[in-house]
Write a sequence for this structure.
C-alpha cells in the first residue's frame, strides 16, 4: 500500500503570508496527487488535481507542484478564509489520504 | 447543479449492520466512479470504497469483507452496506464523485456526510 505523509502537521500563519505544505508518497505516484481543503464540520473541497491543475472556481493563490514522491501545495497570500486543514491524496492505486496539515491564525 | 445527499447514519451496536444511501442529482451515478470516504471524530480522511462505472468495486483493507458498495441506477443512488460493525468504524461517512482526468482520479463533489456511531 502507498503511504502518504505531510509536513508540517500544523502551522500558524498571518494573513498575507506565503504558505507551503509538503506531501510525500512512499513510492513514486507520478502526478497522481490531489489536494483538498476542509473546514470544521464541512465536507472536503477539491483544490488541486493531477498535482498542479487548479480546480474550477478555486482562487489562483493556490498552486500545486511536484511529481514522483514529493509534492507541495502553496498558498501565495493567505486569506482569512484559508484557515483550514489541508489533505493530500494519492490516486495512483485506489486512494490514500495524507494525515492533514492544519493552518491556523498566528 | 450536482448534489449528493447521504442518509442512513445512526447509532448501532457492535456487530450490527447499517446501510448508507447517497442520492445524487445533476449527474448519472452509473456513468461515474463513486467513492465512500470516512472521517473518525477529530481524525483525518480515510478512503473506504469505490465503484467504477463498469461495476468493479474496491475496498480499503480495514473494511474488506464487511462492507459492500453498490448502486441503484433507477434511483441514481449509491449505497454502502456495512456489516459486522466495530467501534473503530465510528465516523462521518461521505460519498463523493470520483472524477477522472486522463486516468487521474479526484473527488470533485462531496455529500454533507452522515454520522455512524458504533457503541453499546
Amino acid at each position: 500500500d502507498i503511504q502518504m505523509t505531510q509536513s508540517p502537521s500544523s502551522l500558524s500563519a498571518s494573513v498575507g503570508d506565503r504558505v507551503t505544505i509538503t506531501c510525500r508518497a512512499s513510492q513514486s505516484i507520478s502526478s497522481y496527487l490531489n489536494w483538498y481543503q476542509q473546514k470544521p464540520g464541512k465536507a472536503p473541497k477539491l483544490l488541486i488535481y493531477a498535482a498542479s491543475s487548479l480546480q474550477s472556481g478555486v482562487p489562483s493563490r493556490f498552486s500545486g507542484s511536484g511529481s514522483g514522491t514529493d509534492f507541495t501545495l502553496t498558498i501565495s497570500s493567505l486569506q482569512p478564509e484559508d484557515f483550514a486543514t489541508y489533505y493530500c491524496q494519492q490516486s495512483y492505486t485506489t486512494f490514500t489520504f495524507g494525515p492533514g496539515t492544519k493552518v491556523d491564525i498566528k | 447543479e450536482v448534489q449528493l445527499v447521504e442518509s442512513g447514519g445512526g447509532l448501532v451496536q457492535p456487530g450490527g449492520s447499517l446501510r448508507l444511501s447517497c442520492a445524487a442529482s445533476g449527474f448519472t451515478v452509473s456513468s461515474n466512479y463513486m467513492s465512500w470516504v470516512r472521517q473518525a471524530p477529530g481524525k483525518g480522511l480515510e478512503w473506504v470504497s469505490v465503484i467504477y462505472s463498469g461495476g468493479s468495486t474496491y475496498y480499503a483493507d480495514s473494511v474488506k469483507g464487511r462492507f459492500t458498495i453498490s448502486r441503484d441506477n433507477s434511483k441514481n443512488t449509491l449505497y454502502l452496506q456495512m456489516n459486522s460493525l466495530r467501534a473503530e468504524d465510528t465516523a462521518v461517512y461521505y460519498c463523493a464523485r470520483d472524477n477522472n482526468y486522463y486516468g487521474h482520479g479526484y473527488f470533485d463533489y462531496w455529500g454533507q456526510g452522515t454520522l455512524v456511531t458504533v457503541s453499546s
Q: What stands out?
A: The longest strand of chain B covers residues 91-101.
